[in-house]
Amino acid sequence: MRYLLRRVGFFLLTLWAALTLNFFLPHFMPGSPINTLRAQTKGRVSDAQLQQILTSFGYKPHENIVQQYVDYLGNMITGNWGVSLGSSLGTPVSKLIGQSLPWTLGLVGFTTILAFLLGSLIGTIAAWRRGGVVDSVLPSVFVVTSALPYFVVGLFLILFLTVDNTWLPSSGNYDTSIVAGFSPGFVGSVLKFALLPALTLLITSIGGWVLTMRNNMITTLAEDYIRMGRAKGLSDRKVMMNYAARNAFLPNLSGFAMSIGFVLTGAILVEKIFNYPGLGYQLYNAVNSIDYPMMQALFMLFTVAVLGALLICDLVTVWLDPRTRAKG
């Protein structure tokens, strides 16, 4: 119980520090929402009218900074994230995030989990059969793929699969001629449009999990309890999965928890290349239009996601590894 309380306390302290930093960062950015709106309206609206519009939406740059900070913390906690000051001027931020979140979770979330599980499995097999075909070929290939930038892989896939061969769509999230709903046609369209960005993420991210799991397994296989398991006459599969992989898997959990932040940012470059309307695409637009409410809400969500994933990771590690529950 003391361990749990200590981790929760650390979570709350880190969250407060991140929210404080999140409040000040947008204010240090060059430009302002007024300049953005002035460019959009092309001078047809006076600065006084623009200021009045932004004030009605909750943007009060002349208010005392301390009062702004207090109001900001209260709004972040209560979910009152204000309205967008960007291209979707006046639309509640919570509504825009609610529209984008399912697309990001469905695409990037599923792909990240799949890459983590497949990479860990391939790394386990490569280390267990060290020197074999899997260990000789795949790690070298994944070293190359993990070093490739996301946007380069995405552009090559667009070139080969949509330009040279019109097999897959290159942008969007579904065919707009199909009525949205849980129909076979709509679900198939969603999967078809998600295939290219998902493949881009899978190619560039699976290599890291393969290499780290392989290295962890090689270190674990030299431990005494592995020799004990073999001496007891246990099957190779049981020694590999229950003794070696279970312990080698633990360091990867922390890395996976950190990658949750990547899930919610939605791989900004990938979503931008494929015009996929996820949270990463929303963040890109918010930065371009100096949309303070949207940026602050998204940064807060990313922070909570990473900290929450790390907290869950600590609890899972305690459950999987009895040594962490020992005192001293």
Automatic annotation (TrEMBL):
Parts forming coiled coils: none
An example Gene Ontology CC term for this record: plasma membrane
InterPro entries given in the database record: MetI-like, MetI-like_sf
Pfam families per UniProt: BPD_transp_1
Keyword Transmembrane: yes
Primary location: membrane
GO terms under biological process: transmembrane transport
Domain ABC transmembrane type-1: 101-313
CDD domains: TM_PBP2
Membrane topology listed for this record: Multi-pass membrane protein
SUPFAM superfamilies: MetI-like (SSF161098)
Keyword entries, A-Z: Cell membrane, Membrane, Transmembrane, Transmembrane helix, Transport
TM segment ranges: 103-128, 140-163, 193-211, 248-270, 297-320
Subcellular location: Cell membrane
Family affiliation: Belongs to the binding-protein-dependent transport system permease family.
Protein name: Binding-protein-dependent transport systems inner membrane component
Source organism of this protein record: Catenulispora acidiphila (strain DSM 44928 / JCM 14897 / NBRC 102108 / NRRL B-24433 / ID139908)
